[in-house]
Amino acid sequence: MQVNYADIIERMKESGKLKNDSAVARVLGVTPQALSNYKKRGRMPTNLIIRFASIYAISVDWLLTGKGGMHGSTADGSRFAMAGEDSASYLNQAENELEAALGGNPLGPDEIIYIGKLLKVLRSNNESTVTALKCSVDAFLKSVEPVDIAGGCSSSATNV
């Protein structure tokens, strides 16, 4: 999937009602020069996109592609609104854990999109769909890593 980071930054300005790239850089916690370099090189750290989406309760899908709804589900938006000031420290911790789990390899745009889709299914109220997804992931995981780290996929293990 070809991603145009200049378009992503434009969508960030639109969704955050930010006037210019410098304002986007401030929100992301980077210098305007760094943001300009991301645009020119066509690469941006995944955590910056996720951070922006989290701060403004914006769909990562929409930020990356411009397709679908700008805002995530209302449940996601209210979750961040209720978190208040604690969301920044929680987000930093989550980013650090994600980076460690990925071994320094940033997520690609397709991976980010599918992680979002998986979370949407896992957070749904349809227990049979959640169980089916977990069983499928467990089966695929076993084909990649023969060690059973995912466990079984009984319906009692469907709470996310």
TrEMBL record:
Where is the HTH cro/C1-type domain positioned along the sequence? 22-63
CDD domains from the UniProt entry: HTH_XRE
Write down a Pfam family by its short name.
Phage_CI_repr
Tell me the GO molecular function terms: DNA binding
Leader peptide range in chain numbering: none
GO BP annotations of the record are: negative regulation of DNA-templated transcription
The name under which this protein is listed is HTH cro/C1-type domain-containing protein
- From which source organism is this entry? hydrothermal vent metagenome
